[in-house]
Amino acid sequence: MRSHYCGQLNETLVDQTVTVCGWVHRRRDHGGVIFLDLRDRDGIAQCVVDPDTAEAFANADRARSEYVLRITGRVRLRPEGTQNANMPTGMIELLGKEVEILNAAATPPFQLDEHGKVGEEVRLKHRYIDLRRPEMIEKLRLRSRISHSVRAFLENEGFLDIETPVLTRATPEGARDYLVPSRTHAGSFFALPQSPQLFKQLLMVAGFDRYYQIAKCFRDEDLRADRQPEFTQIDIEASFVEENDIMAITEAMIRQLFQEVLDVELPTFPRMTWQEAMDRFGSDKPDLRIPLELTDVDDLMQQVDFKVFSGPAHADDGRVAALKVPNGATLSRKEIDEYTKFVGIYGAKGLAWIKVNERAKGLEGLQSPIVKFMENVVEELLDRVDAKDGDIIFFGADKTRIVNEAIGALRVKLGADLDLYTAPWAPLWVVDFPMFEADDNGRLSPLHHPFTAPSCSPEELKADPAKALSRAYDMVLNGTELGGGSIRIHDQTMQSTVFDILGIGEEEAQEKFGFLLDALQYGAPPHGGLAFGLDRLVMLMAGAKTIREVIAFPKTQSAACLMTDAPGEVSADQLKELNIRLRQKAQADAASE
């Protein structure tokens, strides 16, 4: 129906007759001459219709915002003084000879160029309108280019694109499963995959030594800016590899991706152990663009009588950390109070601080309600954090986990609020993760998943599991975990040892993972892989604030689709087929009896 997209019209087509199709972005009537800005996925073209062509003019006169039109006409240069150098099509216009209304449109719930004035709920309710915005089209176009680049790279490296099941068995992988009742097996359920983890390992056992998939994954967990109940994963697995092999392949893929799509050459990917990341930044995904670091001061605070500091400093699971902010003494008391409320979100009971006004004056040059409690260590403290006049020092004192989360988050917030970023992109690898983490009752659970290989023997793992490190690695970019992976357990003895430590008995292991344990008996090769969050990757590359902006039809933070009203009720007949009776309905029936 068309010869060109609107965005393809340019000076090379002057005096040629073309046909374009699209939506009316804007209509203007200038004293008998009608201007229609026609929009499609490729851009916007200005079309001019004058009264000389009566039928075309009549249709242009009827057209309104978001009407669907087909316009045929001659491309010409815009008159001098009306050209728009900011538009790709701004040097030309289309003199319309034929204007056909393909479909009328009701008044849209919001104007596309005024989307910022309406709430996100309105835009998600009418997502098909929101997606017409050029900004949204560009984000989804970017997503497509990213997927294409990834596929091309992996295919060139010998990886095979292999699909894995979506209806599978529920297995514990760290989040709640989405369950699907089976009609043919009453009382039994499928689970939607949290990841293709077990199937890609089985593919390695089967001999497909280089696998990838851009896979849909599902996790029923609380949502946030970079989480959705269904998300997309670039899933990669390979056999006969070690950590460095997987890291080299995937780093090369990300480097090529940024070069091809954004024309950006990423800087060096440093490697940092998990422990160093937690000590220096309070996070296992540190944003290295922010030049602020946590400094341990436990030894100093053990010497003071201030129990708020000395208590955690002496505790086995406690930490006292200082965060120096250069030139931060200009922060007002109101701003400091706001930061105190902020760290409270992470469990911190308060936020102590010292402003360094004139260090040469000793205690008199310091401003803080806590200085009087640490006179005997204050000079050593200032030396340790390298404090200068005009700096402010914040403190976290509590359990190590709370200090890391609270002061680590404060570091990121200060970086954003004070615009402390030193580079546009800061990638790194985080390695040497703990194999397990303990809950408040001391019960161990896998930090990643129970198929991650430890960096020690089964005997050493069994002897001291709390200190064991895993062969896991995460790629981090600008404080966001882009992807995580590990070398997997390929030996049945090691897998059984891990299950024993986790309290998973032989019977339970066979029930939940029997097919994997069986497969490990039949010549499983050493293997490992990595999975990238495609949505997060696109979010970062698009400069978007949330992954909802780069997903065509996302859910809200309550895991609902406002456009389709999902999740929704189903009919009694459908429930009966599935042998399901709702508790609320059952109670109502019992009450009526």
From TrEMBL:
What subcellular compartments does it reside in?
Cytoplasm
Instruction: Spell out the subunit comment.
Output: Homodimer.
Task: Say what the protein does.
Answer: Aspartyl-tRNA synthetase with relaxed tRNA specificity since it is able to aspartylate not only its cognate tRNA(Asp) but also tRNA(Asn). Reaction proceeds in two steps: L-aspartate is first activated by ATP to form Asp-AMP and then transferred to the acceptor end of tRNA(Asp/Asn).
Query: Annotated region Aspartate: where?
Result: 197-200
The entry's L-aspartate-binding residues are 173, 219, 448, 488
**Keywords in UniProt for this one?**
Aminoacyl-tRNA synthetase, ATP-binding, Cytoplasm, Ligase, Nucleotide-binding, Protein biosynthesis
For site (Important for tRNA non-discrimination), what residue positions does UniProt give?
Answer: 30, 81
Q: What is its main location?
A: cytoplasm
Q: Which Gene3D superfamilies match?
A: Bira Bifunctional Protein, Domain 2, GAD-like domain, Nucleic acid-binding proteins
What are the recorded GO MF terms, alphabetically?
A: aspartate-tRNA ligase activity
Q: Which residues form a coiled coil?
A: none
User: Could you say which residues bind ATP here?
Assistant: 219-221, 228, 481, 533-536
Q: One Pfam annotation, family name?
A: tRNA_anti-codon
Q: Which family does it belong to?
A: Belongs to the class-II aminoacyl-tRNA synthetase family. Type 1 subfamily.
What reaction(s) does this enzyme catalyze? tRNA(Asx) + L-aspartate + ATP = L-aspartyl-tRNA(Asx) + AMP + diphosphate
Aminoacyl-transfer RNA synthetases class-II family profile domain boundaries: 140-554
What is the protein named? Aspartate--tRNA(Asp/Asn) ligase
Q: Which CDD domains match?
A: AspRS_core, EcAspRS_like_N
EC numbers listed for it are 6.1.1.23
